[in-house]
Amino acid sequence: VNRTVEALIPILIQSPAEGADRKKMTERLYQAICDDGVSFLWLVEEHWGAICGSVELASEWADRILEPLEQSWGAEHYDPLKRVKSPSLCLSALFHAERYSDIQKLQNLRSYKFWSFDQFWARVLVQQGRLDEALAFAESRQHHDREENIEILEFCEGLLLNAGRSDEAYKRYGLKALAGGTYLSIFRKLVKKYPDRAPRQILEDLIASHGERGKWFAAAKDAGFLDIALQCASTSTVEPATLIRAARDFQNDAPEFAHKVALQAIHLLLDGYGYDPLPSDIVSAYQYLMAAAVQIDAVESTQETLKRLLRNASAKKDTDSRVMTSALKRCSGLGVTKG
Question: What is the pLDDT of residues 127-185, one digit of tens each?
Fold first, then answer.
């Protein structure tokens, strides 16, 4: 939903509608916001001033909400029954109308931190050329909500990047504002933001800053830094399934790398690591391991290593280790008594 709204907002802002037509459009949008019981249109509220298209219409909308909002935020005790709809809409309209003193007044009335509202005062400070004050204010609005804190860090990072202070942006915020579905997407996003920095150094900085080296295995592998990937693979925090896929993908192009990660996957599975592992996982790891071993002429040494791992694993009593040990013995023929 957010991605759809993000795509639609520029269309609304750039609409050729003017005057009465633009006002009619905003009336229909506001009714949709009022009817929206789950705040699907919160991004529309935050961009309301720009959607209005003119200072006059933005100011008109601000006046419709400003007085009840002042009363609500200025009340000694918060009354949920008197909650004002769309504070962000009012703040956005005030910002577009350049009514900065009204935004400051509202900011002073509110006693709690909430970045969706706080951001408008930070933007006012930027507009007034008070960049460092804006950064200090934004940082002061961080609290227990991690997602909101990331938004604040990205806001500060963007301010410094726009000001040409790239190095400072990277060190102060870039390595902290980690938003993304995976560690790989986080790495790619940072590389894109800072094209003048070496990707390898960015990856090493991320690992140094956030630890959990195993979590960065996929980022290192996909970036082609196989030596760093091997360092990441040496920890127990990397998923065996991820290592198995890497062994499969690299068994021809980088057999030595594939051999090492497949062996590590087997080691982890025998030690009981992995998310819902199956016996077929260790079978696959063994197949990729031996395929790579053939290419690097390490079949005998690999079999000796597996025998040692099996001896160590046989002493373990947990069910997962026993299941994996049996599966490896069957598929490899190692440690199985023939009769």
Answer: 999 999 999 999 999 988 888 999 999 999 999 999 999 999 999 999 988 776 788 89
End-to-end alpha carbon distance in the chain? 63
Tokens 């079949």 correspond to 299
Residues with Cβ < 8 Å from 150, sequence gap 6 or more? 177, 178, 179
CA 214 to chain centre: 17
**Radius of gyration for the chain, computed over Cα atoms and rounded to the nearest angstrom:** 28
- Give the pair of three-digit tokens for residue 323: 């299941």
CB atoms within 10 A of CB 192: 8
- The helix/strand/coil state of 198 is coil
What tokens were used for 210? 């956030």
Centroid of chain to Cα 141: 20
- Among candidate residues 64, 51, 42, 39, the one with its CA nearest the CA of residue 10: 51
- 3-state DSSP call for residue 335? coil
